[in-house]
Amino acid sequence: MRNTFAEVLYGLAKDDPRIYIVVADISPAGSMGKFREEFPERFINVGVAEQSMIGICAGLALKGMRPFAYTIATFSLYRPFEFVRDDLGYQNLPVTVVGIGGGVIYSTLGGTHYAQEDIAIAGAIPNMSIIAPCDPVEATEATRWLVQREGGGPVYFRFGKAGEPTLTGPDSDPWAFGKLRYLRRGEDVAVLSYGVITKMAAQVADALTEDGHSVSLAVCHTLKPLDRDGIADLLRRHKRVIVIEEHAPQGGLAPQTKQIAWDIRAECVLDTFTLKDEFVHCYGSHEDILAAHGLSVDRILATVRG
Amino acid sequence: MIAKAGHNRFDPAESRKRCMRYRKRILDISQTVSALHAAGAFSCMELTDTCYHGLMRPDGQDTFLMSKGHGCMAQYTVLEDIGVLPTADLDAYCTAHGILGAHPDYGNPGIEASTGSLGHGMAMAVGMAVAERNKAGGSAEAGMVYCILSDGEIQEGSTWEAIMMASTLGLTNLVALVDNNDFQSLGRTSETHPSFYPLDDKLEAFGWETAEVNGHDAAAIYDAVAGRAGDKPFVLIAKTVKGRGVSYMENVPIWHYRSPNADEYHQALAELREIAS
To answer: Does B269 touch chain A (CB under 8 A)?
Structure first.
């Protein structure tokens, strides 16, 4: 996903002098390296100085540029939070704050590198939008939109790391900012997710299909503004809805889906699966850390199958 | 030396008259609100005036950023005087029907960035200077960015991050002006952090060109900035007096925020008249 993002920006930067990449000591490998070589005046490495990364992006945007602040999610959003809020949110500037490894993807690096509350934190800022692509294809669509959109304010762009499988295909709904999309459509059960954990959601959907259910798989790549109408429609159309989210229980997709369900008096069964409101002290693969939070295909299926 | 100043008609005597007028205008407004950071504005009055009337080119290609947002009354009065900020807006300062508050808001006439939380201006100024330099293709004609900092906000780590970055990027179109009145809310900067000084050595170590002047001497401010070597980002350390121009405000922390009462207001006007004469 990282490389896709850099490749798209590199391609667009040739014709768009407004694109700047401001990184905080992240290795400019792959396409990021090409961008740096070809557009050195528009590639800024601030070093280990995330507050100035955001402030510099604000200054660039105040002069009409379209900067991308780029580092690991905890350092792009949490460390310089007040800069994100004041410089980007309050001034409503078109800066994209890229958070690499949102959730618990940095599974061997420990809790200091987990952005498990990022959607809640970014979402609390007025003017801030949030996009979390589920695969490299969505990341490409979203990156293109971020550069080419007219006006608009700041966006928190929650990213994976590398090696994410492609989950979208020719039958998927087209990507549109602020719109929930179906990757496949069924009639009984809907699995709703976003971001990298959509891979697990797809596995759950596959298993339930094998059980004989007609299963929809939908992704809510734009967490803010949330597609309330799209979620309401999904809740109405299915007898059972399963939300799978790599985020703390508060402030993410799961509680907001429950709120919408209440507001529309939804009649479906609604199960939500999120990270725990805990710091887990263990290491291993991404799947290992998700499992420590209670998120695995088997556990979700065990709950759903009853 | 490169030509940097837009006006070669800058007249320090006129600046002195303007600054007295601006101070009076601030005092007048102070009688409509309980607080407006008068002392911090008086401290950077000559710096602000010299930027707008002396250093910045008249065609709007240069940028002014009040990083010490609580000094915005100095900026508002100048913007009103040059016809950018309508008088009606300044008259409605801090009222429910007005647009101006005690810190500058981006989008208001003449305000290039929202500040108020200290330590934000320097990084935004760096971003602006990069954009201006690239727009000009790296030429010496790039838009200049003038940024007024308080000495208090130099305690913010974010300010040093941006100071370091400005020299790394070789931003010769960036001028910072430190309103060095040696006061912050609770007391003297030199008492809060005795190791704060010497400031010029620290800034030079971070790759900046520095100069130090009396920050209430408009001619000295102008000459120091206009006469800089110009091959590095430049910072002017302006030695100022917080509350400058009103005896009972000078160097007294309570005037960081408070408005004078009626008696104090009349005394302040009398003192300003005396200085002007």
So the answer is: no
